[in-house]
Amino acid sequence: MIRAQGLGKRFGEKRVLRGVDLELPRGGFVVVTGPNGSGKTTLLRICAGLALPSEGELAVAAGRADIGYLGHEPLVYRELTALENLDLYGRLYRVSERRERIGMLLERLGLWEVRHDRVASYSRGMTQRLALCRVLLHDPALLVLDEPYTALDAAGAELLDLELAELRGERTCLLSTHDPARVAPLQSGRLELSA
Length: 195
Prior knowledge:
By secondary structure, the chain is an alpha/beta fold. It has a single domain (2-192), classed as Rossmann fold (3-Layer(aba) Sandwich). The chain contains 6 helices and 8 strands; from the N terminus they run βββαββαααβαβαβ. It has helices spanning 40-47, 82-92, 98-108, 124-136, 154-167, 180-183; strands at 2-11, 14-24, 29-33, 55-60, 67-70, 142-146, 172-176, 189-192. It has a 5-stranded parallel β-sheet, sandwiched between helices. β1 and β2 form a beta hairpin. α2 crosses α3 (98-108).
């Protein structure tokens, strides 16, 4: 699904990535680790088609509509409710039976009871759960998740564990984390970046 050879990225004179090789087969689950500043976010943004590499070759066998990307920003509208946010994204992605899909995701990620509340009233962890609903809504073939456990409490992290375990093998996943042990049972490969 993703093949990168000698991938590099510069921002002016600053080199953020150097010589990254990555092989992520369809249905694979690769975990990207490394210290802050090692280029994890940059690599994931490149693989999701949100940034261009400065050097190397990259092939991603998925179109933009087939990618579910979760970055550091949740990309949900704070003045809308959870239902309104997901309905908007469902229409943008032309999700069939979107109301049923939205209800199922809100229930699974523990947001059903607050579905009519504005996101501005949510905690950071609840907002992260909603962002995960947004990412999964259109049933993407490729999940690119940058620190998806950020701000989740123990219950939210367990819900994400269950969701990722269920999707393993059905979806291709590229995930960055500072806690690789948490997803070790799911991973089919690991890429360690250095600063």
